[in-house]
Amino acid sequence: MEGGRGEESLDVQGAAAEPSFSGYKQTSTKPVWTLLEDAAQMKTEGNAFYREKNIRSAIGRYHRALLVLRGLDSEVMTSMKGFGHEMPALTPEQEATLRNTQVDCYNNLAACLLQKQSVDYARVREYSLRVLQWRPGDVKALYRAGVATLEMGDAQTAKQYLTQACGVQPNDANVRKHLQRAEEKLNRELQKERAMYRGMFSSSLKSSSGGEINQTSRAGEGV
Q: In angstroms, rounded to a whole number, what is the distance separating the alpha carbons of residues 29 and 34?
């Protein structure tokens, strides 16, 4: 698996946060299917920009798609009830289409972030975990969540994500490479912890031994 490169299911600073609902009022009178198709088209355009390595434009398209979908998402709109235009309830098929497009866009945004010179690993992890919330076992999200978590310093959790990804794609060189990195980091941390405890134990023994010698000397001087 490539580190976020070349996926069909593909946010940079200035577009790194989740699409904001603030200041946005869903006033569109378009049918639900039309809005879903609009979002899918924006995602497709984003994929084309990504393949052209126009990461900024790709991110813009993915965010626009997510903003449209946010206005249809029942999880979001329930909390916004009474504000702005209320959309009709989605059919199961529409709900599935919405969620699939959201998953693709968040996966693709995480891939875009990994192309940056300065990677926002916290955001990569956030987007990847959002994907896993809706699609547990998604290997791309597991891989990116593992890489991001490892870079953030949590090798134990990173190992869990990468182990799951390796279970799905055991021959993927990048998954195995980062899983090995996580295991090596955990081993170094374990060795460091053991050395620290050995040092503490050794210091304690020396202190105890020194005390006994001093007591013996004073007793001898008193004879």
A: 10
Q: How many CB atoms lie within 10 A of CB 173?
A: 10
pLDDT tens per residue across span 126-185: 999 999 999 999 999 999 999 999 999 999 999 999 999 999 999 999 999 999 999 999
Distances (CA, A) of 149 to 118, 200, 219: 16, 31, 60
Q: Rounded to the nearest 5 degrees, what angle is found at the Cα of 22, between the Cα atoms of 67 and 49?
A: 30
Query: Using one digit for the tens of pLDDT, what is the confidence trace for 42-57?
Result: 999 999 999 999 999 9
- Who's near 111: CB < 8 A, 6+ residues apart? 4, 5, 7, 10, 50, 140, 144
Going by C-alpha positions, the residue among 111, 163, 105 that lies closest to residue 135 is 105
Q: Which of 108, 34, 30, 35 is nearest to 70 (CA)?
A: 35
Residue 68: name the closest of 57, 76, 56 by CA.
76
Nearest to 2 by CA among 184, 169, 180: 169
Q: Which residue has the tokens 């990504």?
A: 50
